[in-house]
Design brief:
Order of helices and strands: HEEEEEEHEEH
Low-confidence stretches: 92-100
Largest sheet: 5 strands, antiparallel
Radius of gyration: 16 Å
CATH architecture: Roll
Distance between the termini: 13 Å
Number of domains: 1
Structural class: alpha+beta
Shape: elongated
Strand order of the largest sheet: 5-4-3-2-6
Helix content: 25-40%
Number of strands: 8
Number of helices: 3
CATH class: Mainly Beta
Strand content: 35-45%
Length: 108
């Protein structure tokens, strides 16, 4: 029992220190901004999600296509926070969809 509590505690503080969080999935056609050298300034549109990975294919306004990790893409729609609650979550460690947030105890 003590080992489980220790693992839960370690998991909690590791994720808190590294700002780990679950990000909502993005839909094709959704407007986003990409993280670049000068911050979140590059507007783009999601084309598709790469199969079995955490990557998305996005098209910049200039017409160029890029492959980016979800953590380097930010949703810019006005109702992004409302939609985020309704979208499925992506588990960054296990690379699969979640129906609810991770509980560290269930991972071990």
């Amino acid at each position: 029992m003590k080992d489980c509590q220790t693992m839960d505690s370690n998991c909690f503080f590791y994720h808190r220190h590294h700002s780990a969080r679950l990000l909502p999935m993005l839909r094709p056609g959704q407007r986003v901004k990409l993280n670049g050298e000068s911050g979140w300034t590059t507007p783009a549109k999601v084309i598709a999600k790469a199969p079995d990975t955490r990557y998305y294919y996005v098209q910049r306004e200039q017409g160029t296509t890029a492959r980016r990790k979800r953590r380097h893409i930010r949703d810019v729609t006005k109702s992004a926070t409302k939609e985020a609650a309704a979208l499925p979550l992506w588990d960054m460690q296990q690379h699969h969809l979640l129906s609810k947030p991770i509980n560290c105890t269930n991972q071990f």
